[in-house]
Amino acid sequence: MSEKSREFWRWREYRYTMPDMDWHDTKVVTAGVDIGSVGSKAVVMLDGELYSFAAMRTGGESEETAIKVMNWALEETELKTENVPYVVGTGYGRVNVPFAKRTITEIACHARGAHYIYGPTVRTVLDIGGQDCKAIRCDEKGKVMSFLMNDKCAAGTGRGLEVFADLIRVPIEELGKTSLDVEDEPPPVSNTCVIFAKAESLALLRQGLSREKVAAAYHLAMVNRIIDLLTRVGIEKDFVVTGGVAKNTGIVSRLERNLGIKPLEPKLDPILAGAMGAALFAKALYEKEIGLR
Amino acid sequence: MQAHYGYKDGSGDYFIIIDTDKCNGCGKCVNACPYGVLELIEDEFDIEGGLMAAVTEEQRKKIKYSCGPCKPVSGERRLPCVLACEPKAITHSW
Amino acid sequence: MITAGVDIGAKYAKIVLLEDAKNILANANGIVGFDILKSATEVFQKALDNTSLKRDQIVHVVATGMGRKAIHMKPPINAGEIVPEVIADAKGAYHLIPTVKTVIDVGAEEGRGVKVGENGKVRDFVINERCAAGAGTFMETMARALEVGVEDMGPLALKSTKAIPMNAQCCVFAESEVVTLIHSKTSKEDISKAIHDAMAGRIASMVLRVGVEKDVALIGGVARNPGFLPPLKKELNTEILVPEHPQYVGALGAALLALEMEAK
After folding, report:
1. β-sheet bridge partners, residue A52
2. Are C199 and C169 in contact (CB under 8 A)?
3. Helix ranges (DSSP H) in chain C
4. How many other C-beta atoms are found inside a 10 Å radius of the C-beta of residue A266?
5. Domain shared by A108 and A126, yes or no
6. Which residues make Cβ contacts (< 8 Å) with residue C52, sequence separation at least 6?
7. Looking at chain C, which subunits does it touch, using at least 3 CB pairs closer than 8 Å as the criterion?
8. Which H or E run includes C30?
9. pLDDT tens digit string along B66-94?
10. Burial class of residue C118 in the structure, from the number of CB atoms within 10 Å of its CB (0-12 exposed, 13-18 middle, 19+ buried)
11. CATH number at residue C193
12. Nearest CA-CA distance, residue C201 and chain B, Å
């Protein structure tokens, strides 16, 4: 990914430790580290409860990023990485977490994490990141029943929106709002492929359609595509949307309208879902290892 | 679990779906595939789980092309992976 | 008897004026703009100007290509019939290479594989459309990322002997991958070869769906790129013939079909 588009995606780096929790009186300390293509996240859990976390940009070296984000999550806790007996790595760069005992696919971690964040009523999880799109259906225990992940094609990912934001010169954060600033919804752009959809959008602009209308047509095409993918895994209530694109109101509100299902509001930052799931898997694996279960 | 490996792009939907509840991890599909599309992996979704068939990470982005030769435009279509699978755990979306 | 074939592609309009299925009197091409009919008319006029012929001396016009409907029965070109690309491709390639059995046509937005039967008829075909990764647009986008002209891509690739795999299968993601390769000091020659290899692999797998039977011909705008032929030959493990003006084969096929229709 070029430096320019990275900046466009604007990732907020931050950390937090739960003030009223103490690791001294805990049986099991575990952690999950999620190395994504854009952002890396570390979550530390005490007996399966969220304790401390950090989110930062993924640097050029995934291994270095993994160490950094873990240290940052532990910063105010007096814990050291070596005090955490079981760490699970996940995400695109999961094999580059040197202190992880095991890696687990991001799909499984994401479902488990979403289940923790939103509660056991969650059945369908849609995650749209900068470079991929995942659709997951899970049961009441957070176990995956059906999933798909699309990281081949840029259409229907944050990148597809970035290309469009560039074209109509609207900052990515305002793109969704721009697309909703229309009286009637125009027909969707007919091309899926980002390269062709961009050319089609340009032609629409030249025909005199407003930026807002073209943005609406582009967003609608993306939403239709996402619904196709969701239909493949099966859509059931409750439904949640995570990942960077969850912040785009143009996408989320059209999903809600066209599916007739309102996505749940998160209590915690959904960007942490993968790392949380990894930390929960780490707990189960550690307990199995020491004979607690 | 229905594991969908593949993608949707402008030209269509290309998914190989593995029903992991049916898959017994025998690996016959892996040997049957002439293009190295499939592999056996540890079931990461269930910590008690064993081996299951999956599309390799590298191939997940190009099965439309890799599977192309097994899908002639006309004539009988015999997918080696599907035929090799005794529990009938493999389906193709296209 | 003079006939004309008009091939309105995604990017270029190509015209062939043909006399009695033997003499190509003129060919011309031009970029297809927003107004397809206007662009096609300009190119048509260019071809007429080259020969001092008038429209009414051309007895029949057949149109093919993505934009063919825009000139069907519409003056001043007034194409009497429209035919799909694969039919025109097979006809044109068979005329130039009578031994041809497989035609590979790679245009700006589509790739096609055609199995050719008796008398240049289509036996079977496959089309890759609506995804930029499988057509000439991919090469153009990659040339921009590499900051070289699209016509320089082939010559650059031919200078490299390295095989660097490209992971991205999408035009947009491949752009980023090229930028990463540039940053990691990979030479433009090696990157260009990687791009050609990747695209040749995709086109080859598509063609395998109709089967590869000799002789094999490569036509369409991408056939003019000398860097594309070696990896395609390697992937398909066969010799591949490229006619002299590969971008005009579809238009030629349309002109031949115009003659056949007139003869009936």
Report:
1. A17, A44
2. no
3. 36-51, 85-96, 136-146, 150-158, 171-183, 188-208, 229-236, 249-263
4. 17
5. no
6. none
7. A, B
8. strand C23-31
9. 999 999 998 888 999 999 999 999 999 99
10. exposed
11. 3.30.420.40
12. 8
Are A137 and A101 in the same domain?
no
Give A139's contacts in chain B (Cβ within 8 Å): none
Q: Taking 90 as the threshold, does the pLDDT of residue C132 lie above it?
A: yes
Q: What CATH number should be reported for the domain holding residue A100? A: 3.30.420.40
Say what the ipTM of the complex is: 0.94
Instruction: Give me the total of CB pairs closer than 8 Å, taking one residue from chain B and one from chain C.
Output: 43
Q: Which of B11, B62, B71 sits opposite C209 (nearest CB)?
A: B71
A109 and A143 housed in the same domain:
no
The string of pLDDT tens digits covering residues A2-18 is 444 444 445 578 999 99
**What domain count does chain A have?**
2
Backbone dihedral region for residue C12 (phi beyond 0: left; psi -120 to 50: alpha; all else: beta): beta
Measured from the Cβ of residue A199, the count of other Cβ atoms closer than 10 Å reads 17
Interchain proximity B7–A153, CB inside 8 Å: yes
Q: How far apart are CA C204 and CA A108, in angstroms?
A: 36
B/e letters for C86-110, b = 16+ CB within 10 Å, e = fewer, are bbbbbbbbbbbbeebbbbbbbbbbb
Contacts of B10 in chain C (CB under 8 A): 129-132
pLDDT of A247 > 90? The answer is no
Domains of chain B: 2-92 (3.30.70.20)
Q: Which residue of C has its CA nearest to B59?
A: C167
How large is the greatest C-alpha to C-alpha distance in chain C, in angstroms? 62
Q: Per-residue DSSP letters for B8-60?
A: EETTEEEEEEEETTT-----HHHHH-TT--EEEEE-TT-TT--EEEEE-TTGG
**Predicted TM-score of the model (pTM):** 0.92
A211: containing domain = 122-263
Q: Which two tokens stand for residue A109?
A: 């971690």
Inter-CA distances, A155 with A47, C107, C172, Å: 40, 22, 9
State the distance between the two ends of chain A, measured CA to CA, in whole angstroms.
43
CA A12, CA B53: separation in Å to the nearest integer? 38
* Residue A9 confidence (pLDDT): 45
Q: CB of C64 within 8 A of CB of C87?
A: yes
Distance from CA of A172 to the nearest CA of B (A): 23
Tell whether A11 and A49 lie within a shared domain. yes
From chain A, the residues in CB contact with C141 under 8 A are: 195
Q: CB of A72 within 8 A of CB of A54?
A: yes
C167 & C45 share domain: no
Lookup result for tokens 């290479």: C97
Q: CA A137, CA A140: separation in Å to the nearest integer?
A: 10
Q: Which residues of A touch B44 (CB under 8 A)?
A: 103-105, 108
Beta strands in A217-259 (DSSP E): 239-242
Q: What is the pLDDT of residues C28-77, one digit of tens each?
A: 999 999 899 999 999 999 999 999 899 999 999 999 999 999 999 999 99
Cβ atoms of residues C194 and C184 within 8 Å: no
Number of domains in chain C: 2
Rounded CA-CA distance A216/A226 in Å is: 15
Distance CA C251, CA C99 (A): 20
